[in-house]
Write a structure and sequence with these properties.
The complex is a heterodimer of chains A (277) and B (365). Chain A is α+β, with helices and mostly antiparallel strands. Chain A is built from five helices and 16 strands. With 365 residues, chain B is of the alpha/beta class. Chain B has three domains: 151 residues, Aconitase, domain 3 (2-Layer Sandwich), CATH 3.30.499; 93 residues, no CATH class; 112 residues, Aconitase, domain 3. The longest helix of chain B is centred in the N-terminal third of the chain and has 16 residues. The N and C termini of chain B lie far apart (54 Å). Classes of the chains: A alpha+beta (277), B alpha/beta (365). The interface between A and B is medium-sized, with 25 and 32 residues.
């Protein structure tokens, strides 16, 4: 699988991935003397950065990070490459000081810890030689503020028993929007669903397969649904209720992307008003 | 140069712009530790600055560290950091108020780090600088240029939020308004209206604003040099009352029994030093007082310094409140500084009492 990215710091690397799902601070997040990950929120505490293609959403916290990255690189304890969704000035400067290749605008959902990763920052490209990409459409039907979710049957090829949107594989050069409309007709027998918006594609992994999901939002004229063999159960839910469901990976992100493209937002509790420290 | 190009690409800069001066953060050993010391010593072997460059406060006053109870290892490493900067040709000013040392001109491009200095230079002087990090400001000082994006461009200097005060704002309340507005603004450029203020108060407004928010600039209606081009039409407006300001003071106050009264952050100017000395002389406090000033202000104020010292206080130069080592001696600090109140809990593990200078001196006299 080939992923597009943007060069932040030049260079190439062929390394094993280490993926943090949480934003990362090099100050406090890693031991400057050993390169061991100390932050629990990463999900990879105890692993060493040394020689790894280290992937994390974006940097956070202290401005001393560039010096830490420099020190790790100098002692050959630092990462072989840095892969991020969003580069910030602090980590970018650290990558330059340490001579570590770095890219951003990555879809980190495609990468798992342990994957072999070939990074070419100069070409703005990241290749996962052992991972196969499959394109999928997921359509969210919306009716009076609620969204249709369906539970996948035991007869489908992947994510059996998990909750999802109305989904299907994309074959060849097929138009994703047309495929989404087709899946709605097949899986719900609903007529007259109207296309509203297409979200940004995002990737989620199942073993050696990376599903590149194209999210869509459709307005449904009715809540009447007749399922075919691919799904066994359906519910109309408010988006913020999704946390309580056992879903396919990243369903909340995929739904957010579709809703955002349609100018809608999932409401979540806000932060308190005055914060200290 | 590679740092500047990478940052320019990252932020979509069209090119580099020549700078008149640079100001570098990251000089306190407490803040940058061994990784920073190692990098600066390596870098200082070959790098030399090509524009006038100042640097932020150190982690202690190198002339008084023994009396302050600072461990010798800390002082020794701090002195090595200072020597590394000096070897690069950086002015040994160790100040967070470089605008009081050498004031930039209107429209001049700069590469400054240190949030309060950035905010003052952009807002009060009308010079142009982004919020640089320590290494990027140092890189710009060595190259003599910085990527032209953000606040270097006219369109990056327009207001993005209106903050209207419906109460009188001056003196200590400038810090409270700054703390409140920074939280509202995030990285917006607030346009204040409903009050007028002199430059002395603008320093405290901006430093608090740049602490609780990441504001690099603000405008004040009819006062700051670029208020006419700020473009406020259609912006969201936040209204601030006297009760809101008092709530800020209470929200930042979690201590009851201070071990130290601290003035500064940012460092006091000559005039501010004289005023604090007068007030201390009138109501000498019964607990230790540390006053942070730039070396220039301290050297220019022998009378004020001797008044403060006579009453048991200290005037510390080359360092400042939240980057200095004080957690080895104190647990609760009383201060009128909004910036200090914001950072003392996280950077120094302190409880805080935030209040007006006069109120503090009266209470602890």
């Amino acid at each position: 699988m080939r992923l597009a990215a943007r060069r932040i710091a030049p260079g190439r690397a062929d390394a094993t991935a280490l993926v943090s799902r949480a934003p990362f601070s090099f100050v406090g997040g890693a031991d400057p003397g050993t390169g061991e990950v100390l932050d629990d929120a990463t999900g990879v505490r105890g692993e060493r950065l040394s020689g790894r293609a280290f992937a994390f959403p974006h940097g956070k916290g202290s401005t001393v990070a560039p010096y830490v990255i420099y020190g790790l690189a100098k002692r050959r304890l630092g990462p072989a490459a840095l892969l991020t969704e969003r580069a910030d000035a602090i980590v970018a400067v650290g990558a330059i000081l340490g001579g570590v290749p770095m890219v951003d605008r990555m879809d980190l959902g495609a990468i798992l810890t342990g994957d072999r990763v070939v990074v070419d920052a100069d070409k703005g490209e990241v290749v996962l030689p052992d991972v196969r990409a499959r394109s999928v459409v997921t359509a969210f039907l919306r009716n009076r503020g609620r969204i249709l979710v369906v539970r996948r049957s035991e007869r489908v090829g992947s994510f059996r028993g998990k909750w999802s949107g109305v989904s299907g594989y994309l074959e060849g050069d097929e138009d994703p929007k047309a495929r989404a409309a087709q899946e709605i007709r097949e899986e719900t027998r609903m007529r007259g669903a109207r296309f509203r918006a297409a979200g940004r594609a995002m990737t989620s992994r199942d073993g050696a397969t990376a599903y590149v999901v194209h999210p869509f939002l459709f307005d449904a004229p009715t809540r009447t649904v007749r399922l075919d063999w691919e799904n066994v159960e359906s519910r109309w839910v408010r988006p913020e209720e999704l946390d309580g469901f056992d879903t396919v990976p990243r369903l909340i992100d995929v739904m957010s992307s579709a809703l955002a493209a349609g100018g809608l937002r999932i409401r979540r509790p806000g932060p308190p008003s005055i914060r200290k420290g | 140069m590679r740092i500047l190009v990478a940052l320019g690409d990252l932020f979509g800069a069209g090119g580099l712009v020549r700078i008149a001066s640079a100001h570098v953060s990251g000089a306190s050993y407490k803040m940058i530790g061994d990784p920073g010391l190692e990098f600066l010593e390596d870098f200082a072997r070959t790098a030399r600055v090509v524009v006038p460059t100042t640097v932020n406060p150190l982690g202690t006053d190198l002339r008084q560290w023994r009396e302050l109870g600072v461990p010798p290892d800390f002082a020794e490493k701090q002195a090595r950091i200072a020597r590394a900067y000096e070897a690069m040709g950086v002015t040994p000013s160790y100040t967070c108020t470089p605008y009081e040392l050498r004031r930039p001109s209107f429209g001049e491009h700069l590469a400054w780090s240190e949030s309060n200095a950035v905010c003052f230079a952009n807002s009060v002087v009308g010079a142009r600088t982004n919020r640089e990090g320590g290494p990027s400001a140092l890189a710009a000082a060595i190259v003599g240029a910085t990527p032209a994006y953000g606040l270097h461009l006219d369109e990056g200097r327009r207001a993005s939020l209106v903050v209207e005060a419906r109460t009188k704002v001056s003196g200590f309340r400038a810090s409270l308004l700054g703390l409140l507005a920074g939280k509202e603004a995030g990285d917006d450029i607030p346009y204040f209206r409903g009050f007028s203020m002199d430059e002395g108060d603008l320093k405290w407004l901006g430093s608090a604003l740049a602490s609780s928010g990441s504001c690099a600039m603000f405008h004040l209606d009819r006062v700051t040099p670029e208020w006419r081009t700020a473009r406020t039409k259609g912006l969201r407006t936040v209204y601030v009352s006297a009760a809101d300001l008092d709530d800020v003071r209470k929200a930042y106050t979690d201590g009851t029994d201070p071990d130290l009264i601290a003035f500064g952050s940012p460092q006091l100017s000559t005039e501010e030093l004289a005023r604090v000395a007068r007030l201390i002389d009138r109501r000498p406090p019964r607990i230790p007082v540390w006053v942070f000033a730039s070396r220039t202000a301290r050297d220019a104020s022998p009378d004020a310094v001797s008044v403060i010292e006579r009453h048991g206080g200290r005037v510390l130069a080359d360092t400042c409140l939240e980057v200095t080592l004080l957690e080895h001696r104190f647990g609760t600090v009383a201060t009128p500084s909004g910036k200090g109140a914001h950072y003392l809990p996280s950077l120094c593990g302190q409880k805080v009492i935030l209040d007006d200078v006069e109120a503090l001196l009266e209470r602890y006299a």
